[in-house]
Each structure stands twice: as structure tokens, then as C-alpha cells.
Amino acid sequence: MVSTGLQRYRAVLRAPQVAPLVASALVAVLPIGMGTLAVVVFVQRQTGSYGTAGLVAAALALGAAVATPMLGRLIDRVGQARVLVPCAVVSPVALAGIVPVADAGASAGALGAVAFVAGSSAPPVLSCLRSMWPTLLGGDGHLVRTGLAVDALLLEAAFIAGPLVAAILIAAVSPQSALLVAAGATMAGTLAFAAASPMRNTRGAARTDRRLLGPLRAQGLQTILLATFPVGVLFGGFDVIAPAIGDDLAGRQSLGGVLIALNAVGSALGGLWWGMRSVTAPLRGYVAAACLMPLGLGLVAVPDTLAALALLALLFGMPFAPFSVAGGELMHRLAPAGMGTESFTWITTALIAGAATGQAISGPLVDHAGWRVAVLACASVGAVGAALLATRLQTLIPTAGDLAQG
């Protein structure tokens, strides 16, 4: 089974035009892993408040949550290049702009506004790649699952390398340097992806539903969004909690980057395993992962040693990539015609909105009640999300009318 699974990964990466897309996407998404930690540490040091830092990080995430579906709809209508290229300029400039704005002594509201612009113009590179796998791989279901796993592994690689790079820059240079590197990577990676994409000027198929809500009218997508938002709360909260854990147990906020990276390593291992499996029961894996993640985060509140917390951070992350890949498989089956990229951006939006909520909740809780209380609060939200998913499983079984691909 392992040999067959690895052969699928090789087949995906050797497919025409995939390698440059994967390489450029990795550079483009690296700032996702760097940006939050850099923003949290930089703003906390400037203001002395995790609450303010969490709110600014939440504004960054909220901007992406609000704007990403609109960018996805534009991509479906006018092609990737006309959207990605402007985003590759605006978002990095705004992200780098947080530094002079903070140095000028601006208010939390002004910092949040700049962060919101950076987030709202963030290039949806991964959503573009996710929507392209059936085309890139000739519609082979086995390879599409593995392609989605590659996509998830890209994100996890960003969350492994990004926090470590950010932690090194924070410790050796400054939090400002981490923000500037993240901005440069966003620009370079996105421009390279747009140039390499065979669908950079391709418009989506004619939409089957021209109404404003578009794919949001599909019950299956509604269920996926309801399941994804709480998962975002889990991981967004952990991004703020992790530096506080390092500060509390070892007096070093930068250790939070190590915990976040270990969390991503766990997810990458889970995604690698899921991508080796044959195309069976994505719904079963989706539900199991949704239940395991809040349990894993809840256990983080128990130990008092960094070694135990590091192991739990690894285990907590393992179900995330299988959840993401299985959700992508379900979305390819459920996405309405002509709405493929937009449908995937809505999933991204739900995840980011959840992350913003987790950051906004956990920051004040860390300040006033401690990081363990923040852990339990976020885990409780995840448990409620898993329970809601269990009540709506029927909506994730495709009907004949749902099978048109986006």
C-alpha cells in the first residue's frame, strides 16, 4: 500500500505543469505560517498586550475571510492572472506597512485597518490550485485525492517552515524582519504561480446559478462551512496561545513558533497518509477528523512541561490535513458548475473567519485568565462544530444535480 501510495505522489508531481505550480505555491503560502506569529509578537512587544496583538492578527485574518470569496468569483469570471497579479502587489505592501504604522505609535484600530487591507488582498493561490487538480490530472479520482493531499502538504510545509523562519528572525533580528520577509515571499510566489498556471487566462464554465449567493445556496457547502469554521477557531486560537505557552513555561515567546511548527508537522504526516489511501469514504474520514481535533486541543491544557506540550501539539495537528483533503474531495463532487474556485474560497473563508475568531477570543483570555482557559474555550467551540456536522451528514452525499463540477 505504501509503495502504491508513493507512486501516486510521483505521478502527480510528474504530471505536466504541476512541479512549477507546486514550487511557486509553496513560496506564496509561506507567509501564512509566518505572518500570524510575526504580527502577534511584534504588536505585543509594541503595545504590551496580547489582547491587542490578537485583535490585529484577527483583522488580518478577517480581511481574507471577507474578500477571498469575491476574489474567487472574479477568478472564475476573468481568469487567474487578472486577480492574482494585483493582489501580489497590494497585499505585501500592506503587510510590510504594519511596521511603520506601529513605529509611528498608531492606535490599535489603525493597525487593524492596515492588517485588514493586507488580508483582504491576500492572493488565493491555494484555492486556484485546488480547483485545478481535476484538469491538471485528467480527472483521475485516485490522483485527484493525492493532488489535494499535495495541496494540503504545501500548506503544512508553510506552517512548518513559516513559524520556524519567523521564530529565527524574531530571535536573531526582529519581528519586523519576519513581516518584511513574509511580504516579499507573497509577492514573488504569487507572481511566479500566475506565470506558470496553464489556466491563468481561463474563465470558468457558465454558471448554473447567477444569483448573489452563488454556491452558498448548496446545502453541502453550507455543511462544510459549518464544520470548517470551528476548526479555524482551534488553530487560530493556538497561534495566539502558543507564544504565551513559551513565555509562561520558558520565558521565550519564540518557542511558540516551534509548537506551531510541530502542530503542522503532525498535520503533514496525517495528510501524507491520507493521500496514500485509495478513493474510499472521504465522508467518514472528514467526520472522524472533525471529532479528533477539538479533543487534541483540549488535551493541551493538561501538562506542565514543554516536552509533553510539544508531543500534544504534534498529535493535535494530525487530523487537520485529512480533514482538509476529504473536504476538498467532497467539494469537487458538490461544487455547482462554473463556481469551482469560488466554492473553494468559501472554505478558505470559513477557516480564516474561524481563525480570526479564535485569535480574538484567545488573546483577551490569555491576558485575563491564562492560556489554559483559552485552550479549553477554543476546544469547546470545536466540539460544538463536530456535533453540528454529525446532524447534517446527509447534505454531503451528492445527488444527481450536485455532480456538475465547478
Query: Major sheet: size, sense and barrel closure?
Result: none
Query: What is the top-level CATH class?
Result: Mainly Alpha
Q: Give me the strand/helix succession.
A: HHHHHHHHHHHHHHH
CATH topology: Growth Hormone, Chain: A
CATH superfamily, please?
MFS general substrate transporter like domains
Shape: globular
The overall pLDDT, averaged over residues, is: 83
Question: Strand-residue fraction?
Answer: under 5%
Rg: 20 Å
C-alpha end-to-end distance: 31 Å
The CATH architecture category equals Up-down Bundle
* Helical amount: over 70%
**How many E-type strands?**
0
> How does the helix and strand content classify structurally?
mainly alpha
The count of domains is 1
Number of helices: 15
* Low confidence ranges: 400-406
